[in-house]
Each structure stands twice: as structure tokens, then as C-alpha cells.
Amino acid sequence: MNPYKDFKAVVKAGLESMTKAGNLAEGLDLARVAVEPPRDPAHGDLATNAALVLAKAAGIKPRDLGEALAEELRGHDEIEAAEVAGPGFINLRLRDSYWHNCLGAILRAGPAYGDSDIGQDVEVNVEYVSANPTGPLTVGHARGAVVGDAVAAILAKAGYSVTREFYINDAGSQVDTLAGSAYLRYREALGEEIGEIPSGFYPGEYLKAVGQALAARDGSKWLDRAEEDWMPEVRRFAIDALMDLVREDLAGLGIVQDVFTSERALVEAGGVDAVLETLVARGLIYTGTLEPPKGKTPEDWEPRPQTLFRATNFGDDVDRPIRKSDGTWTYFAGDMAYHLDKFRRGARIMINVWGADHSGYVKRMKAAVEALTERQARLEVMICQLVKLTRHGEPVKMSKRAGTFVTLREVIDEVGKDVVRFIMLTRKNDASLDFDLTKVMEQSRDNPVFYVQYAHARARSVLRHAAEGFPAISQAPDSLADGPLHRLTDSGELALIRLLAQWPRLVESAAETYEPHRIAFYLYDIAAAFHGLWTKGKDEARLRFLVEDDPELTAARLALIQGTAQIVASGLGVFGVQPVEEMR
RNA sequence: GCGCCCGUAGCUCAGUUGGAUAGAGCACGAGCCUUCUAAGCUUGGGGUCGCAGGUUCGAAUCCUGCCGGGCGCGCCA
Prior knowledge:
The protein is of the alpha/beta class. It folds into four domains: 92 residues, Gyrase A, domain 2, CATH 3.30.1360; 172 residues, 3-Layer(aba) Sandwich (Rossmann fold), CATH 3.40.50; 80 residues, no CATH class; 128 residues, Isoleucyl-tRNA Synthetase, Domain 1, CATH 1.10.730. The strands form four sheets. Strands 7-6-5-11-12 form a five-stranded parallel sheet, sandwiched between helices. Helix 6 crosses helix 7. The protein is globular. The structure holds one RNA strand.
């Protein structure tokens, strides 16, 4: 039951009947007609812009058209009042019984409430994290991880067919550096004194275990060999070990992806050659020389002919090189092969979650997807801005060089995965995010994690008390839904139901815009409304949820509380956050 | 120099895809609150939505140009 959708249909039906009666031109475009919650609740329950949007085409003044439509709508059973306001909005007030039915429907639908079919099973591939497997994940990685995971969950709830994917960047020079660093630790594990880790190698302690594991498995067999001999095997070993580490870190966040694609495997299987063939056949590859970037010519710039992809045909600023001078593929070439691979596996919408340092890469990748899929698939890139980690408002130093960078693991150990996940979703992905380790543990209204969780815990607590004090009232959602919901008459109670009924709308809008943060704000609003009701009960005993001498009223209120807990749990669910039963 | 992103109350941010008088929390002022789980509630002040044009019934939202900040800019990934 989705009031906005239901009444959009009602409004359209009203318009049609006006047309039939000859009071409205035929063939009007209703696409822009919207039914929304009004900005100011005093205006009513729902508002439609129909008269404003159609006035011009219909050749009727907005307010006149509005009045006519309002009159039409007044005939509807569930509509208590329909009034024209402002420039031509129609404000609708629905009968309380409609909202009572809504609450019943919410309870009967249970966790499925809010599910949508706007996705129409379109296959979406959400690629996130995709870090170089060269070290443990950091807080920065975590943001992309959580954002990607939440968007995937929202899209799934909105009816898309979702694949969660990780692209392993295991083909470049960075994994060679990793192998070299692991080799040093391997020699160390076999008793060699290696001293300071030379610059150009990864100094992290976490590689000691990798060196030891390799020594334990292979003994001294690689010790006196040339680099070209040990490199492939040590590299493979190190990448596997580091990917295990990365997967562990992700599991710590509650993230398990469906597909892991190896760049190296893709290249070795000839994926890039296939792409090149396709593109050559379409005349999109040529050899040319690029101009240096204006205003900032690199020191060592020298013009040289390169193999280029005609990205400018698809909206990019310059054509992009796909081959390095040593003959190997650029990262971009591999990425093209990878995206073609995703397309061949069925993806029609690809969503890539990237860090801000990759923003310069967006246009060429979109161009590539357009070219490779002949516009049958679309790429969306979500850029995640920086996470500013602080403690008591003071920046936490994160310098890789000084070895003081904070790993995701440490932060999870300190505040818990649910706090990390929720906080990462409280901002638009393209805005930077403040993460204060002390603030997020505060129990106050300006800590949204606490405030939302507390609403759920408080609701569960009341239900537990009710189970003791009112054992006759069944708390099964269906029983509560069948209860005397007409007893819910307080304005705060009805306002809360209206808010709960917005959940399907929130899911759809978050899915369409790829904006999980909307759900965080929505949950905060629910929490505020619910805490508000609870507090009212402190002042007026009559408004307390549990009313000893009125089990009927109590049953109705338990339905509302159950519904609230259910929607909060649903919202936290798509965030991958476990709702808590009690605060301790 | 070019491209992308951002600019809303003292601070941190929302703003329902172009709607009505631009909202919330914190902070500040005033007054309440001792419990179904306490970590709060009510209320007041506070705005040139970076600036200037444009589009239209209507702009924080769309377009153009400036100003300020972040990121990126041929064989790094």
C-alpha cells in the first residue's frame, strides 16, 4: 500500500472522468503529474501539482482547473477534503480510516513492505571496493564498500537483479612491488637480516605473515633464484594472501560480494585482444600523437605516437592511450575488457563506486562502455569523497609513510561495524564526510546512529513490557493489523503512520538516484516522530503506549509500535545494520 | 589552462528530481522534565541559498558567466 501511488491513480482517474465529461482536453501528457507529501503538514496529507502542470496545455487557468479537479476528487471515499491552495496545488486530506488501513497493510506485508518492481529485473552490476590487493583496507575504502553494498541492497529491494562485484587490480606494477616486498619478508622469515625496508617497497608489518607463510610452504627454494624465476609464483602467493586479508576486512563489515574478477586473468585469457579487435573493426582505434595538457606540461613531455581509443566520439575530452611503450596494455585497456565482460555476463546498468582520485577517469570509462555495448548498457560512476577521521574533533593522522594510517579493522574494533556502516551512509557520496570516533559513540540526539537504534530498541522494549502486562494481546503482526486501529486518533500517531507509509516512496527514490543517504535521514525522521510520541506520554498519561484499563487502545498502539520497529528494521536492513533490541 | 565535484543559519548538514512562508541537529537565550529504558521536551532569535544575469506561472534546484574550495589532467592503478 503506497498512498502516493494510489492517489496518483485516483488523480489520473479524476482527470480522465473530466475528459469524458468534456471538461478537459483529450490527450494531455500526464507524465509530470505528481502526488507528494506537502512540505507543510498543515496543508494536508497529500498534494498534487496536476492543475499547475496541465493548465497551459489544457488552456485553463491553474486555479480554475484545480477547483474543477478538486470537486471531482471530493467524490472519492477516502478523501475527506480537497482544496486548492497557492498557485494551484490541490491539497488532499484523507480520512483517518485510510491511514489505519495503511498501518494494517504495513504490518501484513512485514519486511516485504517497500519492495518495488521499478527495477523490472534489469540486471545491474555494482562494482565496489576494487582495491589493489597490496594492504589492509582503510577507512577510505570502507566508505566505497558500504556505499556500494547499500546501493546494491536498495536496488535489489527496488526490483533490480543485482550482482555485487569486486575487480582485483592484480596486473600492474603495484602487485610486482607487493611481490618484491613479500620476497623481502620471505628472506627475513628464513633468518636473513634485511634491515630497513628500502623505499619503493611496502613496509607494512602485515607482510611478515605472508613471508612466513611462503617460507613455511616452499622452504628455501626461492632463495638464490633470479627475480624472474620467483616473481610469478611469489606474486601469485602474495596476491592470494592479500585478497584473503581484504575479504576478511570486508567480512568484518558484513560484506560478501558475489563475483571477484581478476584483471590479470582477464588479460591472460585474451580479453583485451578481443576488445581491441572489436574496436578496430568499428574504426575506433588509431595511432596518433596527443597534445600536452594546456597550462601544465609535464617536465618530461615529449610527443610520441600511441595506440589510441577514439573516446572523443563518445563525449570524452581527448582520445585515450590503450598501450604502454613497452607493449603491455594500459590499465584503461584492461578496464575496457572488464566492462565488456560485465556486459556479456548480462549487465545492462553498471555502477562503479570509486574514490575521488579516480574522478578524472569517469568520462573515458563511460565513453568506453557506450562504445563497447553500442549503448545497450549504461555506466554510472559514484565518486566517494574523502572521509575525515577525527577523535574529539581532532584529526586522526593517517600517513602511510609514517606507518600511522588507521586500518578499517581498527576502527571496527573500536566502534563496531554497524556504526561504521551507518555513518558512511549519512552523507551524499560526492560530499566529504566527517567521522568522529567519539561523537559516533555518544548517546544523544545529534548522533544519528544512536538516535535511530534507540527508537528501535525503545519500541522493542515497549513490546516486551506489553507481553508481560497484556498477555492477552497477540503481538503477531497479522493479529495487530486486525486490531482496533481506529483507536489511533492522536495527531502524533497519525503523523507517524503517514511517515511509515512513505517507506516505499523512499526506496524508489533512493534507488533511482543512487542515494542511500536519503534513507538515513528518513530513519532519523521516524525516530524523531516516535521519540516525540513517547515523550508526549510522559506529560499526558492518556498518551502512554500501555494503558492499563484500556487493552483495546493498547493493542492499537502496539500495532503502531510494531510497524515503527518494522520499518526502522527494514531501513537498517538495506544499510546492512543490525537493529538492536535494547540499549545497554 | 582544461575537466569533474562542491558552495544553504555561527558550526555540521537536509531540502521530496522545478513548487507554497528555505528546514533539522549542535551552539546561544528562556522555560520545563525524575520515566512503559535515563541519555530529553517546549519555545525564541538567527538566511542576500557564493555573486550576477537568464529560462517560466514558479528557481536553493535548470542554463550562462564570474568568485571561492576539493580532486584529476599522455605509457600509475
